[in-house]
């Protein structure tokens, strides 16, 4: 008969009480030893810190916050699908910047982050929440306001007191793309967009249509590719099969544009840019690779993250400051595909 596997006890985390017992001091003396500026004789402080190091003790920062002793330095980041390379690059830089400034990022990401998960993370003593793109339920916004948790939003505008936003001038960027295509002599132009419920998609489509109308042109086709590489590949295949006359394609982000480039030059045997111009939006790192040389509209990542960090510092220093909206100016970046 098989014997039951004995239950292994959980590892014991060394506590301040353990340090106090080993050092022969009070619990409050241990606390003062780890509190800058707290009164404690230097010899006793050094003795306590030596014992703590031997035992492997570190103060519980979150416990101190829950007792009302300072900030947690926890910053939640809510982001969308990381198949969107732009969001991946934004997240990477945000995490780097937060850690460099002594903050600890808590990341929630995916195609559709459940509202319950966002509400659950609000149970932590957050210093702030950064929301990258997508949509935020009103309940989350209201709850953040009640808890006085600062919120910085990027990729959309959230009209709410005390919530700061950083957003690209997407309409202007789309107009720059159309202008470049028209100047190249393209007249049979199609649009490949993302999810219809995103503000960036609405703005880029509106900018495209407005610029096309101003040029006296009508789009050959308007379609969507969910902002992913695979979406761009599949949608472009369908576009070029149904409309082989297309000579210009504006994609609402670089991931879709790279998919479009792959299917156009590979399966469809189109010569880019001789017979087909392709322009993306964002200027992700892959767009700059010599093997792609993607012409695109730069949605400056460094400037976006810099502004988000500035707004975060401002909001933490002055919680009552009025909401601020920062618009990132787009830039046309010519490379090999237009």
From TrEMBL:
Record key words, sorted: DNA-binding, Transcription, Transcription regulation
PROSITE patterns documented for this protein: HTH_LACI_2
Pfam families reported for this sequence: LacI, Peripla_BP_3
Chain coiled-coil ranges: none
Keyword match Isomerase: no
A Gene Ontology molecular function term of the record: DNA binding
Stored SUPFAM superfamilies: lambda repressor-like DNA-binding domains, Periplasmic binding protein-like I
Record-annotated HTH lacI-type domain positions: 14-68
CDD domains: HTH_LacI (cd01392), PBP1_LacI-like (cd06278)
Cited PANTHER family: HTH-TYPE TRANSCRIPTIONAL REGULATOR GALS, LACI-RELATED TRANSCRIPTIONAL REPRESSOR
Protein name (Swiss-Prot/TrEMBL): LacI family DNA-binding transcriptional regulator
Taxonomic source organism: Roseibium aestuarii
């Amino acid at each position: 008969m098989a014997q039951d596997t004995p239950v292994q006890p959980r590892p014991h985390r060394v506590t301040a009480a353990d340090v106090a017992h080993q050092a022969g001091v009070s619990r409050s003396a241990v606390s003062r030893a780890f509190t800058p500026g707290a009164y404690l004789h230097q010899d006793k402080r050094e003795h306590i810190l030596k014992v703590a190091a031997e035992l492997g003790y570190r103060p519980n920062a979150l416990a101190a916050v829950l007792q009302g002793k300072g900030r947690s330095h926890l910053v939640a980041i809510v982001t969308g699908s990381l198949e969107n390379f732009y969001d991946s690059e934004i997240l990477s830089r945000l995490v780097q910047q937060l850690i460099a400034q002594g903050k600890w990022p808590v990341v929630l990401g995916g195609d559709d982050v459940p509202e319950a998960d966002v509400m659950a993370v609000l149970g932590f003593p957050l210093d702030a929440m950064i929301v990258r793109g997508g949509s935020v339920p009103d309940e989350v916004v209201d709850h953040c306001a009640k808890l006085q948790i600062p919120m910085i939003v990027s990729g959309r505008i959230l009209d709410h007191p005390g919530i700061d936003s950083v957003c690209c001038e997407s309409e202007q960027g789309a107009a720059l793309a159309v202008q470049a295509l028209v100047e190249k002599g393209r007249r049979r132009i199609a649009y490949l967009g993302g999810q219809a419920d995103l503000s960036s998609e609405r703005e880029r489509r509106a900018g495209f249509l407005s610029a096309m109308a101003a040029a006296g042109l009508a789009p050959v086709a308007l379609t969507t590719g969910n902002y992913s590489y695979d979406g761009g590949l599949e949608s472009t295949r369908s576009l070029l099969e149904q409309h082989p006359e297309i000579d210009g394609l504006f994609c609402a982000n670089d991931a879709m544009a790279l998919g479009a480039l792959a299917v156009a030059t590979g399966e469809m045997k189109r010569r880019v840019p001789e017979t087909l111009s392709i322009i993306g939006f964002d200027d992700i790192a892959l767009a700059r690779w010599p093997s792609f040389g993607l012409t695109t509209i730069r949605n400056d990542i460094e400037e976006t993250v810099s502004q988000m960090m500035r707004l975060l510092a401002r909001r933490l220093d002055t919680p009552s400051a009025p909401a601020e909206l920062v618009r990132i100016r787009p830039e046309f970046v010519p490379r090999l595909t237009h």
